[in-house]
Design a protein that fits this description.
517 residues, single chain, alpha+beta, globular, five-stranded antiparallel sheet, 14 strands
């Protein structure tokens, strides 16, 4: 003991209350260091150590010996199960009680997942400086976790391999939240055929350069009028931000909460950047949200345990399906139809499109890349399997500029899915029920509105805010659209696009009062 530093001693003093929970090789290393800080603060408050010693101790970087846990399979998942047992049955029963535990893990799929993550992360490290990756696969019909890879190599300290990213990591999902923004829009009366303008747009209404918010698209291009289905499939940023505004951020967050995303608690901090990944989520939670899409709105509680018996063979616990409907299926069918269309996604994937298709299988896919390429995501699903992949660095350092979801996450997702699909039931998504397009410009899929004046027909181009009240999109056309604070910002971008792309536009377009560039 006399050879310990003050910092090391404080760590040991933190552990006896719950040695397994505070294990430096488990999922609660953060909590261990929080407990260490508590001990050091108590020592300082009681004047048992000096201020100088206290500051030195909290700055010291403590390292731990590599844990030797033999040939344990799926270490991150196994430790997740261990935590579950301790939390539900107590430490003594969990570790010494002779429990027989059958988990949900499919060893064949786990082997495929581990290889896909290992090979993909090694490739990413060489090409993009991304040393780690994670993959979780789930049976969307039951909520059972079938494969779980927390990192490329649990035993590799250089990449912080013991960090259990699916449950511990709070990461920005990039565009992976966009389907839920469009889902909320469909609930409000928009359809996949509705049109929005993808043009340079200022979203801040204060006229302050420091607070200016003008999102760019990934390809640094703007395509003008675009259907919502194409905007989602191509993951275009400006349309997504506009749809979040039209939805109302609180409505989107409530839907995400219904789908199991509980970490988005600061809407004022995210603002309209939420749709581009401005908030933080967990891989395990977002995977389940996509699994709900797979099941057309039925949420199945995630499970890692099939059966637990005590040492006498008594059944302590057995799998039961806890499920409930969180949304009507029609709107989700629209999302599934969009995300499973290789034709709609082809403009964004281009030469990598082959990684997203599996002949004979109907597979939906959405990707996401966070700011500065810190996180690359791929979420894909069929009615029988849901898979989520994250790629990046456990220490949150950014990857190189080209380390996007398409290049860093999708290859891992593809590598797993091409073999995993062979072990599942081949099912197709149900098509949406037939629906009638709303009788309003842009909502009906037409961005030109034809008006007649003095017997002549004049095509009109305006932003969508000219035609709808965002609180009631299907209601009457606003008598004064300028009452919406975003109106002039959106309108000026549309008119500028028209000036550059429509011949003789100002000879026939009827401008509304006070509309300027």
């Amino acid at each position: 003991a006399k050879e310990l530093t003050l910092s090391e001693g404080a760590i040991l003093a933190s552990m006896p209350i719950a040695p397994s929970y505070y294990s430096p090789w488990g999922d609660h290393k953060k909590e261990l260091f929080e407990s260490q800080l508590y001990v050091l603060n108590r020592l300082k408050d009681r004047q048992m150590i000096s201020e100088k010693d206290y500051k030195k101790a909290i700055k010291e970087k403590v390292s731990f010996a590599t844990q030797s846990i033999g040939s344990i399979q799926a270490p991150h998942f196994s430790l997740l199960v261990k935590d579950y047992l301790i939390n539900n049955y107590g430490e003594y029963t969990a570790l010494e009680g002779g429990l027989k535990v059958i988990t949900t893990l499919d060893t064949d799929l786990q082997e495929i997942a581990e290889k896909a993550v290992k090979d993909g992360a090694e490739r990413n490290e060489e090409l993009y400086g991304g040393t780690n990756a994670s993959l979780v696969a789930q049976d969307p019909k039951t909520g059972q976790i079938l494969a779980y890879v927390g990192s490329r190599d649990y035993f590799n300290d250089k990449i912080e391999g013991q960090f259990n990213l699916p449950v511990q990591g709070l990461r920005q999902p990039g565009s992976a939240l966009k389907p839920f923004v469009y889902l909320t829009a469909f609930e409000k009366g928009f359809t996949p055929k509705s049109v929005i303008f993808d043009v340079p747009t200022e979203f801040d209404t204060r006229g302050n350069e420091e607070t200016s918010y003008k999102p760019e698209n990934f390809d640094e291009k703007f395509v003008g009028p675009i259907s919502l289905e194409s905007a989602l499939a191509e993951s275009r940023n400006v349309p997504a931000v506009k749809m979040l505004y039209l939805d109302g951020i609180n409505n989107v967050i409530q839907n995400l909460k219904n789908f199991g995303i509980t970490t988005l608690k600061e809407p004022n901090r995210y603002g309209l950047s939420l749709t581009l990944g401005g908030g933080e989520v967990k891989l395990i939670d977002l995977l389940n949200a996509y699994a709900i899409l797979s099941q057309e709105g039925i949420k199945h509680e995630q499970k890692i345990i099939m059966k637990i018996e005590d040492s006498n063979g008594n059944i302590l616990e057995e799998y039961t399906d806890n499920s409930k409907r969180v949304m009507e299926p029609q709107y989700i069918k629209m999302i599934n139809q969009i995300l499973s269309s290789s034709e709609l996604r082809s403009p964004v994937f281009s030469a990598s499109l082959y990684l997203t298709t599996f002949p004979g299988y109907h597979v939906a896919l959405k990707t996401g890349t966070s700011q500065d390429y810190r996180d690359a995501w791929a979420f894909g699903y069929t009615p029988s399997l849901a898979v989520g992949v994250w790629a990046g660095n456990n220490n949150n350092e950014p990857m190189k500029q080209r380390g996007s979801s398409i290049l860093a996450a999708v290859p891992i997702w593809n590598s797993f899915l091409k073999d995993a699909l062979l072990k599942t039931t081949n099912e197709s998504f149900n098509e949406p029920e037939p629906y009638t397009l709303p009788n309003k410009p842009m909502l009906n899929g037409e961005y030109e509105n034809i008006i007649t004046m003095n017997g002549k027909k004049f095509p009109q181009l305006h932003s969508i805010l000219y035609y709808i009240d965002k609180t009631n999109p299907l209601g009457p056309i606003p008598s004064d659209p300028a009452q919406d604070p975003q109106f002039f910002n959106w309108e000026s971008g549309v008119l500028l696009w028209a000036k550059e792309n429509v011949v003789n536009f100002f000879e026939y377009n009827v401008s509304i009062p006070n509309t300027t560039f």
